[in-house]
Write a structure and sequence with these properties.
Length: about 140
């Protein structure tokens, strides 16, 4: 790990290999301070976890036992399962909503058809009434 400095901005960078290539990832943005020490002193709570990088995961510097990798993996697996379940529920809700929208469109189409039939029937009745009046007019 190393600190990359650009102007007054500092970043803690980790270097690792991915296949044959060397990659870098930003572990923390330390912010716009004149030195790394000032950045760490400015916000000790935010950067407390940086003191423990490179130390065994089983013991924290504050005396609190940190979770081991297997525990974290189990938590990640549980969270992924929960996310998948939520996605299934969301898809199910979306398909139910889509089914209701299709039903509404079908009912609107049927309603429009019935309205058109009613208008046609009303028009036919009005025409029949006109013809009837014309036939019964006194001469």
């Amino acid at each position: 790990m190393f600190v990359r400095t650009r102007g007054y901005s500092h970043q803690l960078i980790e270097t690792y290999r991915q296949g044959d290539k060397v990659r870098q990832r930003i572990i923390a943005n330390l912010g716009p301070y004149r030195s790394v020490e000032k950045a760490l002193r400015a916000d000790p709570v935010r950067f407390a976890h940086l003191r423990d990088i490179g130390k065994p995961a089983s013991v924290d510097t504050t005396g609190v036992v940190a979770p081991d990798v297997e525990t974290l993996k189990a938590e990640v697996k549980a969270l992924k399962a929960e996310l998948k379940e939520q996605q299934i529920k969301t898809r199910s809700a979306a398909s139910t909503r889509d089914a209701f929208l299709i039903q509404i469109k079908n009912l609107e189409a049927a309603l429009n058809t019935e309205r058109d039939k009613t208008l046609a029937l009303g028009s036919a009745l009005a025409n029949a009434a006109k013809r009837t009046r014309l036939l019964t007019l006194p001469v």
